[in-house]
Amino acid sequence: MQTLEREQTSTTTPFPHLKRWTATEFEAMRQQNLLQGKHELIEGMVYKKMGSGTKHSRLICALFYALLKMYTGQRIWVQLPIRILGEGAKYNAPEPDVMVTKEDFGTYTETPTSQDVLLAAEISDSSLPFD
């Protein structure tokens, strides 16, 4: 099994032995079932997503139903990925808890991009310092 290693960028890097994964490498790991459970890529680091506890799940539901009053349910996505464009694309593949897109989900033949997203929200009840 491979270890997560980041490519060395300088001699002053606090973790010179770690590799910074790209979104392409991350997706290949997913396709090959090398990752167990749910993960997301943030700034080149692969993070295992924590399971949703009762409080976390209730907050996601509360936000979902509040957004339903403003947008149709076909524009609200729950715990699904965003394809980042621009400078952040290479090292990021986030999966926000809730997001609202410009168009209904049926419009998208691929994962929505960061330009398609009106709102992205991460619910944090136990991991606030990280989130």
Describe it for me?
The chain has 131 residues and is an alpha+beta fold. It has two helices and five strands. The chain has helices at 23-31, 54-68, and strands spanning 39-42, 45-48, 76-78, 98-101, 117-121. It has a three-stranded antiparallel beta sheet with strand order 3-4-5, covered by helices on one side. Strands 1-2 form a two-stranded antiparallel ribbon. The radius of gyration is 16 Å and the shape is globular.
Unreliable spans: none
Helix content: 10-25%
Query: What is the number of beta strands?
Result: 5
Task: Write down the overall geometry.
Answer: globular
Label the structural class: alpha+beta
Q: So how many helices?
A: 2
Characterize the main sheet: 3 strands, antiparallel
The order of strands across the largest sheet is: 3-4-5
**What string, H for helix and E for strand, traces the elements in order?**
HEEHEEE
What Rg is obtained from the alpha carbons, in whole angstroms?
A: 16 Å
Between the first and last Cα atoms, what is the distance in angstroms? Answer: 28 Å
pLDDT averaged over residues: 85
Strand content: 15-25%
Explain briefly what this protein structure is.
By secondary structure, the chain is of the alpha+beta class.
Helix/strand layout:
Layout: H1 23-31, E1 39-42, E2 45-48, H2 54-68, E3 76-78, E4 98-101, E5 117-121
Antiparallel strand pairs: 1-2, 3-4, 4-5
